[in-house]
Specification:
CATH class of one domain: Alpha Beta
Shape: globular
Strand content: 35-45%
CATH topology of one domain: Aminopeptidase
Pfam family, one: Acetyltransf_1
Mean pLDDT: 96
Radius of gyration: 15 Å
Protein name: GNAT family N-acetyltransferase
CATH superfamily of one domain: Gcn5-related N-acetyltransferase (GNAT)
Helix content: 25-40%
Keywords: Acyltransferase, Transferase
Number of helices: 4
InterPro entries: Acyl_CoA_acyltransferase, Bact_Acetyltransf, GNAT_dom
Low-confidence stretches: none
């Protein structure tokens, strides 16, 4: 099974799949900024307000033309941060996990960051999630933890881990 990664320059063609992906990801416990249960309207609102633009690059992962994962990078526009990008919302459909999709998306988003003259990537993830091991395996460095950073699906405040990578 081959994974194809491509930049999504617009979301219209993929909006339904993007909405389904974020809903199933969140509703299966992913800590990407939302509480349960995620409704269709909330997913639609998210994608409408996070369309690709000059400072946001969105990548999609496909298997047999089915969207099974996404990641995007926010390119910092402040003059003192123009060397930096924040990796946001890495999602892989639960049915497609453990196939190397997340790793492929992360490697490709890193290439896109380099094309935009970025030399530093930053991201955060919930303490204890499997994503921590993924990011470490890709060369991200643990920078620290912030307790009580975000609520989990049960409303309990949890710690987030901060990572960076010089590229």
């Amino acid at each position: 099974m081959s994974v194809h990664i491509q930049e999504l320059l617009a979301i219209d063609r993929y909006k339904q799949e993007l909405c389904e992906l974020i809903q199933v990801t969140v509703n299966n416990g992913a800590s990407i900024g939302f509480l349960l249960p995620m409704q269709k309207e909330e997913a639609e609102d998210f994608w409408e307000s996070h369309k690709p633009n000059e400072s946001r690059i969105l990548l999609g992962a496909f298997i047999n033309q089915r969207l099974i994962g996404v990641v995007y990078i926010e390119l910092v526009e402040k003059p003192n941060g123009s060397h930096r990008g924040e990796i946001c919302k890495l999602m892989v459909h639960p049915d497609a996990r453990r196939l190397g999709v997340a790793k492929a998306l992360m490697k490709e988003i890193e290439k896109k960051a380099l094309e935009q003259n970025r030399s530093l990537l930053v991201l955060d993830t919930r303490d204890g999630d499997h994503a921590n091991e993924l990011y470490k395996s890709l060369g991200f460095v643990f920078a620290g933890a912030i307790p009580h950073f975000a609520r989990n699906e049960k409303g309990i405040l949890e710690t987030t881990n901060l990572y960076y990578k010089m590229i």
